[in-house]
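hey
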């Protein structure tokens, strides 16, 4: 009997999110560096970040410090995707009002745009990205400029941003403030929208790309929208609780406990019926569904297998999670 394929089967390019996938806080996540290094021996590996406050070179330097062989060209940032989007309607040489920091201004200038901070300079567009220095004066200038109807592009709309001291407001909250003032929404370049994925696929010449993320609402739904193979790794934000309640658009193709499993045969999901009970098994983990009741029959030896079996069982009911009686053990399976 042939071995089951790995998640990397047929994939020529692997794209990875950063926080929650490669590192958490200031520390590399266990097995991430060695796994990505091994994958890079046979496939192109790139990194995608919504963080608009840092340059690609700064991100590459951080990753290299963990032991990864990374240059700035291996990193696709939301400002890069935003400038690519801008170029579709606003030509190089135009003046652009920037709300954000060096991660955004440097990319605009590299692509031939003139950066301004004042609406009085009659900018051709507004570009908005996160920076800790952004405050009311910058948001007000953007609002003044946008009342003329010029294009408005946001690097991303993440509501929160992880910090060492906890969770802080992200670019989405700042974009929302401007939206409230001007009564319209920006085009968005970063996850979960597709421009950042499209930019990465084009840069690396991918024919079949796989994206690894730790959040369903940005990483997985975005990868699915872009037609990429999607992998949720259980080392970051989302886990079994979020997976069980995931809508169809944000369900990953694969679930892995850590990045080592990308190169291992992916376990088969086996389903069968016993009278009026539907049983879903992944190796020695199994879950039973009877009507609206979902129960764990065996937790198995690998917690990730229970997550895989549980999500397959719940998703297979085609019912919203709040309409099911789900075994509490599944909510804490990871």
């Amino acid at each position: 009997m042939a071995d089951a394929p790995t998640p990397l089967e047929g994939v020529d390019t692997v794209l990875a999110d950063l926080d929650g996938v490669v590192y958490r806080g200031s520390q590399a996540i266990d097995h991430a560096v060695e796994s990505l290094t091994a994958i890079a021996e046979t496939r192109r590996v790139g990194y995608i970040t919504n963080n608009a406050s840092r340059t690609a070179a700064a991100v590459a330097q951080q990753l290299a410090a963990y032991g990864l062989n990374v240059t700035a060209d291996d990193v696709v940032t939301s400002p890069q995707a935003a400038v690519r989007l801008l170029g579709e309607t606003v030509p190089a040489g135009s003046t652009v009002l920037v709300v954000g920091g060096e991660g955004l201004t440097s990319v605009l200038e590299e692509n031939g745009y003139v950066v301004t901070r004042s609406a009085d300079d009659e900018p051709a567009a507004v570009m908005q990205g996160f920076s800790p220095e952004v405050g009311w004066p910058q948001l007000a200038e953007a609002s003044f400029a946008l009342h003329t109807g010029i294009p408005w592009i946001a690097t991303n709309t993440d509501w929160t941003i992880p910090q060492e001291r906890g969770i802080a407001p992200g670019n989405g909250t700042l974009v929302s403030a401007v939206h409230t003032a001007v009564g319209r929404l920006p085009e968005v370049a970063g996850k979960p929208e597709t421009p950042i994925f499209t930019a990465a696929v084009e840069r690396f010449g991918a024919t079949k790309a796989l994206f690894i993320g730790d959040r369903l609402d940005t990483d997985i739904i975005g990868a699915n929208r872009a037609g990429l193979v999607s992998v949720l790794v259980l080392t970051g934000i989302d886990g079994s609780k979020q997976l069980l309640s995931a809508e169809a658009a944000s369900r990953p193709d694969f679930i892995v406990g850590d990045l080592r499993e990308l190169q291992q045969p992916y376990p088969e999901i086996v389903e069968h019926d016993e009278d009026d009970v539907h049983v879903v098994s992944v190796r020695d983990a199994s879950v039973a569904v009877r009507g609206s009741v979902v129960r764990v029959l065996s937790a198995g030896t690998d917690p990730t297998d229970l997550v895989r079996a549980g999500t397959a069982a719940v998703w297979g009911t085609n019912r919203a999670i709040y309409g099911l009686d789900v075994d509490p053990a599944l909510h804490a399976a990871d």
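The chain is about 30% helix and 25% strand. The radius of gyration is 22 Å.
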